[in-house]
Write a structure and sequence with these properties.
The protein is α/β, with parallel strands linked by helices. The chain has helices at residues 17-28, 42-46, 68-81, 93-106, 212-221, 230-234, 265-268, 288-291, 300-317, and strands at residues 3-7, 10-11, 14-15, 32-38, 54-61, 86-90, 110-114, 116-120, 123-130, 135-140, 146-150, 165-170, 197-201, 224-228, 255-259, 276-281, 294-297. β2 (10-11) and β3 form a beta hairpin. 47% of the residues are buried. It binds flavin-adenine dinucleotide. Flavin-adenine dinucleotide is lined by residues 202-204, 229-232, 243-248, 260-262, 264, 266-267, 270, 280-283, 286, 299-301.
Length: 318
């Protein structure tokens, strides 16, 4: 069985869901994962990798872990030292920063935002969305090493295997670019890229206060994040961190609810691979209905509060 090195993100000893999915992707490719973690809490997080099919975990510390160039060089060295057939990172901000650098060190192609893997002879076959998600491309790797980022909320978390052997390495090379501080987000809100449910609003909500019905529906689900179209972000109604689409974030939650969003191609590029798509729009001709699994034609200000009340009633019964 081949080895794939996976960059596993953690915060305060807690493993990020996106990284568990990247480990699931390695499993889907028929490989054993070697997890690489770094920063404070890496050892505690590695100890939690007990059933993700991880054979070994390498914890990095030292000044180089704060530098994308030093860290990516160290990751490439680990891939070579492990004679690994691949390197995976989740398509988070950090993964998307590191993976191209690792690919450059290894002199191999980077497949970004991959949604499927399979072993193919000595190499791999990967699938990824193309043309703003209008087509799915199937590509085969020809280089010695597969280098890829994995789309969030796409791969199942792998199960099985024993606890990995944990080793440590210190990166003394501080690198050229350094992260000197990290600020926690003000509120403990779910990130739109990681939430299993995303409730997004658009210009159909009329004014910033119109988003209260979106906030209420997201709160009723409990595990939902609020998303937004670019139109409302440009108007200053919502922060850019919530923007879904070509120039915003790519999301693939289990459930995506688009409220008062027309469904422009640039918006669809960021959400069309979601599990189930529900559209609420008063215009029956709105393009969003072409990608929706369920569509409700009507006024968001009547439909959304009724939906929120129904979700609350269902939750109260369970
Ligand atoms: C280079 C480029 C990049 C872009 N990137 C992005 C991106 O990343 N993300 C993005 O979203 N857009 C992006 N856009 C903008 C995109 O083209 C659209 O302009 C934008 O998505 C429209 O936002 P909207 O659907 O909220 O607004 P609108 O297009 O104005 O649609 C509002 C919708 O609300 C409906 N509506 C109105 N009132 C109600 C009501 N009471 N109840 C229910 N429905 C109602 C209307 O029928 C309409 O369909 C980009 C554009 C360009 C050129």
């Amino acid at each position: 069985m081949s080895n794939i090195v996976v960059f596993v993100e953690q915060e305060g000893g807690n493993l990020r869901q996106a990284s568990l999915e990247a480990l699931g992707a390695a499993h889907q490719a028929g490989a054993t994962a070697v997890a690489v973690l770094c920063g404070d809490g890496a050892q505690a997080a590695a100890a939690k990798l007990t059933a993700q099919g991880v054979s070994a975990a390498i914890c990095l510390d030292g000044p180089g872990t704060h530098s994308p160039d030093a860290l990516s060089k160290a990751l490439a060295d680990i891939v070579q030292a492990q004679s690994a057939s691949g390197f995976l990172a989740p398509a988070t901000s950090r993964g998307r920063d590191l993976a191209p650098r690792v690919a450059a060190h290894l002199d191999c192609v980077l497949f970004s935002d991959v949604t499927g893997f399979a072993a193919n002879g000595g190499g791999f076959e990967v699938t990824r969305p193309w043309l703003a998600g209008k087509a799915i491309a199937t590509l085969t790797t020809s280089g010695a090493v597969l280098c890829a980022t994995t789309r969030l909320n796409t791969f199942p978390i792998a199960g099985g295997g024993a606890a990995p052997t944990v080793t440590s390495q210190t990166l003394n090379d501080a690198g050229k670019a350094r992260v000197t501080g990290v600020e926690a987000k003000g509120q403990a809100k779910l990130d739109v890229t990681e939430a299993p449910v995303v409730v997004s609003g658009g210009r159909g909500l009329k004014e910033p206060e119109g988003f209260q019905i979106i906030e209420d529906l997201a709160a009723a689900f409990g595990d939902a994040a609020v998303g937004a179209s670019r139109a409302v972000v440009d108007l200053g109604w919502r922060p850019h961190s919530e923007q879904v689409g070509q120039t915003g974030k790519t999301v693939a939650p289990k459930l995506y609810i688009a409220v008062g969003i027309s469904g422009a191609i640039q918006h669809l590029a960021g959400m069309r691979t979601s599990g189930t798509i529900v559209a609420i729009n008063k215009d029956p001709e709105a393009p969003i209905f072409k990608v929706a699994d369920y569509g409700i034609v009507g006024d968001a200000f009547e439909i959304v509060p009724a939906l929120t009340a129904e979700i609350k009633a269902i939750k109260a019964k369970h």
